[in-house]
Amino acid sequence: MEVNATNARTQFAGINGKKIAYRSIGKGYPMILCQRFRGTLDDWDPLFLDELARNYNVIIFDYTGLASSQGIPHADMKGFAGDVIDLVKYLNLEKIILGGWSFGGWVAQIVTTVYPQLVSQAILIGTRPPGKVSHDLEEIFIKTAYKPVNDFADEIILFFEPISELSVKKAKESHDRIAQRTIDKDIPVTLDQLQHYRNGGEDYVKDPYNAREKLTTTNIPILVISGDHEICFPPGNWFELNRTLPTTQVVVIPRAGHGPQHQFPEMVATYIHAFIVNNIKDGTAN
Description:
The chain contains eleven helices and eight strands. By secondary structure, the chain is α/β, with parallel strands linked by helices.
């Protein structure tokens, strides 16, 4: 049976006194994807992962101490970034394409700027740059994201564009694809664990790693993909940095929200592949 995002079994990387839960699909150059706030292995749209896995070895994981991963949860962004480093070491990878969605985009940016020798290209989805920003998240995101359990109506608010009939239709399709997984289900992140993300967020704003400044001098190609109604991290935060980020491209998808890769999984995977291939062809990949 072909291994895909719906049937791939959960594996564990035992390293540095912790066990990181991960799944791996596809063959080719390794691509590690960092998960969103409250997200688990089961919260990626399988069609998006399968489309990426046509060309890459796609690896997803849970952060230490959250969901199925074991160990002490992290208190700062370098700790979260350390999970990526440990996974790279465990899997004997030399260099990776690194992706991240939302909070995972923060993790990806810390890895990219603190450990640049490990990252060939970076893909950031529905996220924001480090440090202080001018455009904040909408209050409805906090009210919805912090519910004990999120239902389908919440998913529309959090990840899609409620005013668009097409986006709502795509939300249902994505929801149904995710629900197809019936084996090896992951463990939900609990409300009492959300403080670890908040601690990471406070650290990300303070930016003791000088990551924001490092983005202005990096030679690593970076692709940012955002919805035009980004309820959490408006793309205007990237627009303000125009002409200061030498390797960053920003793609904004109309009538889309915080999860554009779930609304248009095939299209977003195509954008990502084209970006990667063209940087390799032009010799600009790290």
